[in-house]
Amino acid sequence: MWVIALGTNDVTKYAATEFAALIAQLLKALPADGAGVVWVNTYLRDAAGQASAFNGALTAIVGERPFTIVADWAEEAPTDGLLIDDGIHFTDAGNAAFASLVVAAVDQLR
Questions:
Q1: SS3 assignment, position 87
Q2: What are residue 70's DSSP bridge partners?
Q3: CA atoms within 13 A on the CB side of 95
Q4: What are the distances in angstroms from CA 86 to CA 72, 105, 107?
Q5: CA angle, residues 14, 51, 13, in degrees to nearest 5
Q6: Residues 102, 109: contact at Cβ < 8 Å?
Q7: Which stretches of 2-81 are assigned E, i.e. beta strand?
Q8: Which H or E element spans position 80?
Q9: Residue 46 maps to which CATH number?
Q10: Number of domains observed in the structure of the chain
Q11: 8 A C-beta contact, residue 100 and residue 90
Q12: Which residue range is the domain that position 97 belongs to?
């Protein structure tokens, strides 16, 4: 099982047109032996358009790979109390919510 939580720091460093190729490149580097992959999508309050573009590319690419799912942090992150004032980093409640999200996604692939 692979759990990937990458992208938040990258969504403003690349053009949205590059996201699919970057995601595919990383997934191609993983063994194709049926091991599950959970990729947590991104939430970036102050770059919502770029984060949404990344998440769209992620969902499309993940849909092409068996035993691979997206854990939807972008849906959960805006919940009051999960992030500190910068809109990126977790509070204690955010840490617990993120961990629960990952565990639930891993359980889906078992």
A1: coil
A2: 39
A3: 2
A4: 20, 26, 31
A5: 20
A6: no
A7: 2-4, 37-40, 68-71
A8: none
A9: 3.40.50.1110
A10: 1
A11: no
A12: 2-109
DSSP state letter for 38: E
pLDDT tens by residue, 71-104: 999 999 999 999 999 999 999 999 999 999 999 9
Q: Quick one: tokens of 66?
A: 């068996």
> Are the beta carbons of 54 and 42 closer than 8 angstroms?
yes
User: By C-alpha distance, which of 39, 38, 44, 40 is closest to 89?
Assistant: 44
- In tens, the pLDDT along 30-80 reads 987 888 999 999 999 999 999 999 999 999 999 999 999 999 999 999 999
Length of the chain, please? 110
Task: Count other Cβ atoms within 10 Å, centred on residue 28.
Answer: 9
